[in-house]
Amino acid sequence: MRIGELAALAGVTTRTVRHYHHLGLLPEPARRANGYREYGLRDAVALARVRRLTGLGLSLEEVRDVLAARGSDAGRELHEVLTELDADLARQEEALRGRRARVRELLELAERGELPAEGPVSSELAALFGEMARAGARLPGPEPAMAAKERELLALLETAAPARAGREVVAALGVAGADPAAMDRMYRVYALLDELVEADVDDPRVARAARAVAECVPDEVLEAVGGVPEGLPYGGHGEGADGGFAGEVFADLAPAQAEAVRQAMRLLVERAR
């Protein structure tokens, strides 16, 4: 047989056959006088076995190990490789079930019209965003831009924070968000912060917004995040530009908004002492 006939018989391409030769998975056959490879039944049997092994999901390196074993070692080598493959497939299967469950959960939210634009997020955070949407709908005007920033930040924190810490923060926020009156107060704070977009850092509204922000942070949230770290940049004007993540958060705010948040953090530190 020519290489094309062998490949067609085994259901692979001629390029695959050449690749198997290059890796040593298939021995080089005899060649005709014109230099073309001449394949026989043994070559077809060997190629078919390689295809069966790769079809199970074995890597080419694992296939090489199985083929290299001889006698009773061949059976033991194949058993060991298949045992490892089975364990790996079980892990993949479990992960796939988890992913499918998560996708179904998100589809259910979408069908109810509750999938937030910032999604995908956890069902707990989606519920909180739903409460925020309802609070925003109760406003006479458009939703404050700061509310959208808050959702983006919460989605980022849920992804970036350690799993347990992220769940605790979201749970604490969910308890607070379940109170419509508390959520309405938070939206009034968002509106106050929106007013500071064009304000100077020494505008009297900055201190008023700072107090309102601090008053809206429940004790449960402070406990979930372990209090306000002393090292965060909440000092004077302009601080935090190079303060890592916190600095980036401040940089995304208008100067007066950032100052209001810094002052609120100072108030929270004092409250936590």
From TrEMBL:
PROSITE patterns: HTH_MERR_2 (PS50937). It comes from the Bacteria. Keywords: DNA-binding. SUPFAM superfamilies: Putative DNA-binding domain. Signal peptide: none annotated. Residues 1-69 form the HTH merR-type domain. GO terms for molecular function: DNA binding; DNA-binding transcription factor activity. Pfam families: MerR_1. InterPro entries: DNA-bd_dom_put_sf (IPR009061), MerR-type_HTH_dom (IPR000551), MerR_fam (IPR047057). This is DNA-binding transcriptional regulator, MerR family. It comes from Streptomyces pini. The lineage of its organism: Bacteria, Bacillati, Actinomycetota, Actinomycetes, Kitasatosporales.
